[in-house]
Amino acid sequence: MHVDDPVRERRGELGEVDPLATTTDAGPLSKLLIDPGAIAKTLYDEPSIVVLGTEMSERAVGPAAAKKLLGSWAKLALSIDGKPREVRSATWGYAAANVAWMVKGKTTKMRATLYALQIDGAWKVVGVHFSLPYRRSMFN
Length: 140
Prior knowledge:
The chain is α+β, with helices and mostly antiparallel strands. It is 18% helix and 40% strand. It has helices spanning 8-11, 28-32, 36-41, 63-72; strands at 12-14, 50-52, 59-61, 77-80, 85-88, 92-103, 106-119, 122-131, 134-136.
């Protein structure tokens, strides 16, 4: 789980994304982290599906809302920065990675995590979250 402070501008400044402590080779779930359109296509059709973005307004619960939010991210230029951490079993899996987002010549780095279930031989995404790092000010 990643926890963000939605009012970071009052509590600190944007910081650096720390490297993952342990990494693996990228697999099918890691590749989804940088393709919002592919995430939308593999969402599990279940009312408890959730997608959380980096801003308070980027929250979606349920397949329709999640697909709409993911669709608004479809043209983002995202890439995995460094090696991810991906764990898969016969029935569930997750992937975490540092993701670089390129916009107007500037790169913003964030952490992304995706959770999926293996259903009838296919991965179905049940949750995805993107978070921006920030440095907290001790005196705010």
